[in-house]
Amino acid sequence: MTENQETPDRTLGRPRATTHDVLAEIGVELFTRHGYEHVSVQQIADAAGVSRRTFFRYFPTKADLPWGDFAREVERLRGELALVPDDIPLMAAVRHAVVEFNRVPPEAVDQHRARLGLILTEPELIARSLLKFRDWRQVIAEFTARRLNLDPTSFFPELVGEVALSAAVAAYRQWIPSLDTDLSTFIDTAFAAIVDLDRLEQGVAAQLSMRLDTRGRDHRRITGTATIQEMQESQEENADETR
Asked: How far apart are CA 225 and CA 176, in angstroms?
């Protein structure tokens, strides 16, 4: 059987698409109609007119299907970030890229809404999102690290990645039941609330790092994890201040 022969029948009026996209569309439709847990891989393969072997060539598990070709989407996000001029402040750049990344063509809105609804509500898919969103956050962290000349795994790049993802997910949750507002509006509004993070490019990162270092010792003392030497040093510092 050739690749063209493996595509699903055209009775549902679907436009031509990659096999990844077609399988994801059919799967999401079946999940929405019958419930995620009640639809098997075999049923999806039968509806698409392909074998189970072909299904697993594109998706390792059923839980991967609603994500479509997520590796391609992660690279698309990377591409959007690369297009932002270097003179655009950090969070403004992230905001612009994530908004553009989340623009949905009118003909794909219903499918995308159903897809996100499944990903954010089904327990098995929520668990899968921990792995999927990790790759998404890493793209943001790497971009941030280049801007701040830091290691991508250091605190501030990871912070920006987490904040960006949280803003996007919060926007997704609000958009799913909001049929009269486009997703990009929710995304843009979410990022508008965190613009103060632009201060990271004004030398605040180094200052906050120093504060975290000094506060860390106080935190260990309060929580009982400080060493005896640290507690003695803290007591001596407090004594000096009262003299």
From this structure: 44
pLDDT score at 6: 39
Its pTM stands at 0.72
In the structure, how many helices (H) and strands (E) does the chain have?
11, 0
Instruction: Write out the DSSP string of 104-139.
Output: --GGGHHHHHHHHHHHTT-HHHHHHHHHHHHHHHHH
Token pair belonging to 88: 């655009």
Q: How confident is the model at residue 180 (pLDDT cuts 50, 70, 90)?
A: confident
Give φ, ψ of 179 to 5 degrees. Answer: -75, -15
As a whole number, the mean pLDDT across the chain is 80
Domains assigned to the chain:
4-60 (1.10.10.60), 69-202 (1.10.357.10), 205-242 (no CATH)
Mean pLDDT of 113-142: 94
